[in-house]
Every structure is written in C-alpha cells, then in structure tokens.
Amino acid sequence: MTRPTPQTSNPYQLYLVTDDQQDLATLMHVVAEAVKGGVTMVQLREKHGDIRAFIERANALKAILVGTGVPLIINDRVDVALAVDADGVHLGQSDMPAALARQLIGPDKILGLSIESPQQLAESQQLDLDYIGLSAIFATPTKTNTSMHWGLDGLVDTLQKTALPVVAIGGINQGNIREVAATGVHGIALVSAICHADDPCLAARGIVEAMR
Fold first, then answer.
1. How crowded is residue 90: how many other Cβ atoms within 10 Å of its Cβ?
2. Which residue out of 45, 77, 102, 109 is catalytically annotated?
C-alpha cells in the first residue's frame, strides 16, 4: 500500500484505535465489523509489553484487512510494524524519534505522530510525517497522561497552522462528534465508541453519518 497522496480518498476519516484489553477473538470481531461499518484506518495499540502477542494480533488484523483498502497502523513499535509488514506506524512523543523511524520503515509507509503541545506542533513541521494525531481534544478515561486538552478552538487553530492531515483523538463521542467534524478535521480517532459497542458495525456506520 502506498502512502496517502492528495489524489487518494481520505484514509484518516474514521480512525479506529484498538483496545488492548480485548482478547484476540473479540479484537478480530470488532475490527472486521467496524470496517464493514465504515472505518477507514485501524491502529493496533498494545501496552502490555508482550511482543509475541503483539505480532500475533497484528498478523490476525492484517489478514482481516486484506482486500479492504484499510491500512493497518502499529502503535509505538517500529519493530513490530516491520515484522508484519504493516502499512505504517504511529509514534508517541516518548517513542523512537520520527526521523529515525522514517529511515527504518522507508519512504512508502505511513508515519503518524501524536502532538500534545504547541511546541510539538511547531517541531512536527520539520519531520517527514504523513499525519499528526492531535491529543487530547477533550478529557478521556482511556488516556489520562495528556498534558493539555486542545478543545475545538485548539483544533481549529492547529488546522490553520499545519499542512499535514490532522486526526483528532481524545474524548470524542456521539455527543460531540458533529462539532469536531464541523471543524474540517481530516480524521477522528475513536476507541470506546466502537470497541465497546454492542454492534461495532452499526456504531461505525452511525459515526460516519454523524460526521457528514
């Protein structure tokens, strides 16, 4: 899969971040159904440190996504992304430096970076990135170590300051998703709203509708 270009459809629109507390069977079910419902990108997020399990889960998701056109992004771990030949990597600020990650994954993979402050936003403009993840837009129980909340005003300001696609993440739900989408943001990242839904396909479909 080639890196996104302005000519391709927007792969960031509905960006699913997986829940590492779900077992493999649940994870596979959630992702398969969510993609049917309209998810356009999947990030496999694993925080437990078991690299073998990470690779197993990544390979399982890669198999599910074959033929869908939905990219598989690996959170944090460049080695896992290389091991399974994933479509890209998403880095946090405490992970491998983005410039080094780009050297390792090559020019054709997708590279995203979490941005948590105005200074980090400014620094990101000098990096060979495909998109930034703006975190956190609102307070969220799934990410408690954020340094600030950007809010809608901060999101709008960021969109004016960078030419990179912006994915909004953190505290986004059915109650505020229309307002977030109305900013013109390129993508919205969700965890709980899809992963914990009774019907992930229906949940994803409803979110896509709400974003229009």
1. 29
2. 45
CA-based torsion, 47, 206, 200, 129: positive or negative: negative
Count of beta carbons in the 10 Å neighbourhood of residue 99: 12
pLDDT for position 145: 63
Structure confidence at residue 163 (pLDDT): 96
- Any residues with CB less than 8 A from the CB of 138 and at least 6 apart, and which? 149, 151, 170, 171, 172, 176
Residue 140 has a pLDDT of 77
Taking the C-alpha atoms of residue 159 and residue 173, their distance in angstroms, rounded to an integer, is 20
Among candidate residues 57, 77, 102, 114, the one labeled active-site is 114
Contact yes or no for 91/112 (Cβ under 8 A): yes
Strand, helix or coil for residue 43: strand
Could you give the C-alpha distances from 26 to 33, 142, 201, in angstroms and in order?
Answer: 11, 18, 13
The predicted pLDDT at position 7 comes to 39
Please indicate whether residue 114 is annotated as part of the active site. Answer: yes
Segments of the chain scoring below 70 in pLDDT:
1-8, 141-147
Q: According to the model, what pLDDT value does residue 100 have? A: 98
Q: Which of 3, 36, 62, 143 is catalytic?
A: 143
